[in-house]
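Milestone M4 deliverable, item 7.
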Amino acid sequence: MTALAAAGFSTAAEVLAHFPKRYEDRRQFDAFPNQAAPAAVCLRGTVIDAALRHFGPGRRYYEAVVMDGAGGVFGSGKITCRWFNMPFIQKVLAAGQEVSLYGKVKDANGRLIIDHPEFEVLRDDDSTSIHLERIVPIYKNISGIAQRRLREIIHLLLLQIDPSTLAVDHGADDPSVRARDFRDVHFPESLEQAKAARRRFAFEEFFILQLNVAWRRSRYSEQNGRVLGKSTSFLKQFYTSLPFDLTEAQKRSIREILADMRVARPMNRLVQGDVGSGKTFVAMAAMLLAIGSGCQAALMAPTQILAEQHYLTFRRWLEPLGIRVALKTGNRDEGSHLEIEGEPQIIIGTHALLYDSVSFRDLGLVVIDEQHKFGVAQRASLIRQGIVPDVLVMTATPIPRTLTMTIYGDLDVSLLDEKPPGRGKIITAVRIAAKQTDVTKFVKDQLAQGRQAYLVYPLVEESETLKAESATEAFEKWKKRLGSHEVGLIHGKLRPEEKEAVMRRFREGETAALVSTTVIEVGVDVPNANVMILHHAERFGLAQLHQLRGRIGRGGHKSYCVLLTDGKNPEALEKLRVLERSSDGFEIAEADLRLRGPGDVLGTVQSGLSDLRFTDFLGDTALLREARALADRVLAEDSRLDGIHQKMRTLIQAPDESSNLPSTA
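Output delivered:
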């Protein structure tokens, strides 16, 4: 079939591996709601009105009003569906048609609306087909193939394919069991049956992933590395110079790092900690151990603001010890090595460290901060600039244990599960439709006490499509509201030198309030700032909100994080209530996992999970452990690369890839 071939499908196996993204129970549709709800609904009704409508110059949307089949018995009995800038919808959807709809219902000025719902036009003969009166699979769209046609193709393939070509040779499975798995995952008799089949396929997928992780870990540990950390003189000087004590979690992590560095294999360790848990001082200790052995250490951060923050922190603590620190970003190349003779011992920078203009004499330790912000190739490029260097990666984004096993399974993990003493308490509050005068008065009261405030917005500039105030337009308003207090503006579109100047004035206390976008999400450390007002808070992710909140509470003052929202989206409100209840990053990460699912939480492309089809099972601890145990057993039997590839071919085998698509498809 031309459309399948154009989409990259060449065999029956590849089509059958295109598993449903969800299912609709068309044996009994949901009742038409009478109010907005956070969960998506599946409805059956008749289009009673449809028209192409316009809003603003050159902008249009297609609108269809759907009435339930019971004639309005349930609630209003009507739902308005809208598709913005998709005029082709009018060619397939018209008044008089019976349809199934799937989407989230919201309230728009008293009307119940579903924007961009998935829909399918139902036919009179569907009651005897695979499209109705049963649990129906819904697939990710393939260009050029209607949903119902794709469903028919897959159903036909399952009838024609020989079960023996679907068998997997790993134990009890036989061809008939394998064929049943495919039937259950595509056309189940119950939702429980579908979940069980998906779980079996998820296990196979996770096994391949864990086998790769275990093999990488094994190969990395076999490399001959260098022995560092024998001299602890710099570390001892640093520790005695601190006016405070490190937390037990920091001390434990440093001991783990020291043990790694003293073994003749490359360290490959993750330091995972919540915002404000003291990762920077752990990284500093590791770098002191490296330079104490005569080599250099580099720290790469994802943004210039974060790199400069690290540079200032390292200089403040390490220059009194005679340690030379340098900064390398896209537009800056400076450091104490310009004033003190000798090359830098510690180099801090952004991705600019990857350029040819940076040359290392002997790079022995690589530290990558907020490592998920970098691509795999970028991380590898910096590591290659050393001679089998030790590697320490850090993240301030708490990740549930099951996902850590999946993404960081080839790393040793140090967990910072304590916060340093002396941090002020953060009070978090959700405010629905708050009056601007009340918000302004609260901010002015705090500024009058000598504190500073972040005023955060989701957009840089005004948007025609999103109804949310931008940082740029809010900046002018806040200057008038706060009168004599200086107000700054920072966002990602400013030139690096402009951002640097704005942040310097805020750090030094010259600016009282900073209007910002999420550019301040990581690395900004201003202990005197104790207020954060997050406007349109429902537009931010849960983990992102937690990261932003981490910018306050860094001094000894009581701090306040206010989440402003219109309260119209129940699901968004539930998310914000999580922040209001908890300040524990790991608890918040677990909630984020439940609310959004692993793929959205992680960003599958950055995390390396973009090819996974069963991210909904990434929270299944038992399944992941079982897959890891099998991978470890396979690796123990044959650790050679060619041996593992053979195991993967025989243990986890896709349906016969030599089977071309039947011509009838």
